[in-house]
Write a structure and sequence with these properties.
- One of its GO terms (molecular function) is DNA binding.
- This is ArsR family transcriptional regulator.
- Helices cover about 60% and strands about 15% of the residues.
- By secondary structure, the protein is of the alpha+beta class.
- The protein has a domain of about 70 residues: Winged helix-like DNA-binding domain superfamily/Winged helix DNA-binding domain (Arc Repressor Mutant, subunit A, Orthogonal Bundle), CATH 1.10.10.
- α1 packs antiparallel against α4.
Length: about 100
Amino acid sequence: MQRVFEALSSTVRRKILALLSDGNELTAGAIADEFAISKPAVSQHLSVLENAGLVERDKRGQYVHYRLVEANLANTLNGYLQEVCPVSRGIRKNRQRKGD
């Protein structure tokens, strides 16, 4: 449980979870494109989320795809909070406008 709280303590990681909500599955590059930080920094954030059991990855050829671990209680609670959180609504609207 400590790893989950540490993972959720970062705004960037919470935004990554918002991007992956609603069953979205995104490549590491697509996730990195949403942030004004380096790709290695995003990769580190994804590793923290994976180690906490909040996301899982699937390597397909040269791309790594990330998705939420649906059975995780923290993700269930996060999904609920995303419905009432103004920040995550904006993130999801931006993604929809981009056609992703």
